[in-house]
Design brief:
Layout lengths: L2 H10 L8 H5 L5 H16 L6 E10 L7 E3 L7 E10 L5 E6 L12 H9 L9 E4 L6 H7 L7 E5 L22 E6 L2 E9 L2 E7 L15 H9 L2 H11 L9 H27 L7 H21 L6 H11 L3 H4 L12 E3 L6 E2 L10 E2 L1 E3 L16 H5 L1
Parallel strand pairs: 1-5, 5-6
Antiparallel strand pairs: 1-3, 2-3, 3-4, 6-9, 7-8, 8-9, 10-13, 11-12
Length: 393
């Protein structure tokens, strides 16, 4: 399709029934795309079994338009956007579940925000004895005690803010305390670590894994810190993968921005499942770029074949579709032709003139002929004529 046609479709794209939107939006500001979002989350949970360690963190979808729950996070590259709370597998970076942060529109039912999001995101793994790693926005001592009980049965490892009242005064920062020193505090299955990284920086870590309080003799780092560093990067790596190869486009509507984010989530999750299944059977894994190209072709192939059957379709559009599908023009007209893998020069219809790819750059011979296999422009000197029977051999 043309660029104007694509822009027109994106402008008209909606994800809900407009007649009931205002009524539903009073209770849920995420209504314009809520149904499609829940469909994606159900598929993400059903098609993957998480590992032992999972991590919870946030992702910011860049957006500077009008939105009631647009967030400002200064340490993010985009700074403004729609905030998503995510649960990812720490080893494979698979996105298991996610929920949007709606600001004041979030109905937490009287529960603190961090505790509410942790319980909602881990709903699919309750009672599985998995470990959840999180940062200080989610971690709290009451949450760690609740996760150990029924029906959660999960452990927690996360950083703790320095203003928490549960931290003893003896574990806080003092000038007389040496750098790279660790202090441990125990309360049943809970372990609180105070680790002095720099003269002016303290790290407080809470764990419900019944830790022993050991320290690495070489690096002088506690094993709790090393475990936290090895399991905390699931969401951050997932966010980085979204930014490296992204399908997001500039838009002034936040539902479309979220839809682009959903496409990125779907592509990455499907690629992670593909890599695992391919490695199990012992085959070579293709790159993510090639995987997305192949996925795109498989998604549009059936629709392109349907469009070829439209009799009123302009001929130049049909020729472009045949070129994408790898079908020669003669084959579309009912004449026998060779396969796409044979070296048969093919004069394409309505193609631009290009310089011959085999001649010297000094000659600058312009031609409309292209090789049907490698699509290289070729002039009359380098063109070889075949009949249909010889080309098929």
């Amino acid at each position: 399709m043309s660029k104007e046609r694509c822009d027109f479709l994106l402008r008209c794209l909606r994800f809900d029934d407009k007649t009931f939107r205002l009524q539903r939006q009073k209770d849920d500001p995420f209504t314009p795309i809520r149904d499609l979002w829940e469909m994606l989350m159900v598929q993400c949970r059903q098609n993957y079994v998480p590992g032992t360690n999972v991590t919870i963190d946030e992702q910011l979808l860049a957006f500077r338009g009008r939105c009631k729950f647009r967030m400002y996070i200064p340490n993010k590259p985009a700074k403004y956007g729609v905030k998503l709370e995510m649960l990812c597998d720490s080893s494979t970076r698979y996105m298991i579940d996610s929920t949007p942060y709606l600001g004041k529109g979030t109905n937490t039912r009287g529960v603190p925000l961090g505790e509410y999001f942790v319980k909602e995101l881990t709903r699919s793994i309750h009672g599985t004895n998995r470990n959840v790693t999180m940062d200080n926005w989610f971690t709290s001592v009451p949450l760690a005690k609740q996760l150990l009980q029924q029906p959660y049965n999960m452990t927690l490892v996360g950083t703790l803010r320095a203003n928490k009242k549960e931290i003893p005064e003896e574990m806080k920062n003092y000038r007389s305390r040496a750098v790279n020193t660790s202090m441990f505090c125990y309360d049943g299955p809970l372990t609180l670590l105070s680790y002095k990284v720099k003269p002016s920086k303290m790290v407080y870590l809470l764990s419900s894994c019944d830790e022993d309080g050991t320290v690495d003799p070489h690096t002088k780092k506690p094993h709790m810190v090393q475990f936290y560093n090895s399991t905390k990067g699931g969401v951050d790596t997932f966010d980085q993968m979204c930014s490296v190869i992204s399908c997001s486009r500039k838009t002034s509507r936040w539902p479309l921005c979220v839809f682009y984010g959903m496409l990125n989530i779907s592509c990455i999750n499907s690629y992670i499942i593909y890599c695992h299944n391919t490695c199990v059977i012992g085959q070579k894994v293709m790159t993510r770029r090639d995987f997305m190209k192949k996925l795109h072709m498989q998604l549009v192939e059936s629709w392109l074949k349907t469009r070829l059957e439209i009799r009123t379709m302009p001929r130049h559009v049909k020729d472009k579709i045949k070129n994408v599908l790898g079908v020669s023009i003669e084959e579309g007209q009912g004449q026998p032709s060779s396969s796409n893998n044979d070296l048969q020069p093919l004069e394409a219809v309505n193609r631009k003139r290009k310089i011959c790819g085999l001649c010297s750059y000094k000659k600058r011979r312009m031609t409309k002929c292209y090789c049907s296999k490698c699509n290289t422009a070729i002039c009359g000197e380098h063109k070889v004529d075949f009949c249909v029977q010889c080309a098929s051999k």
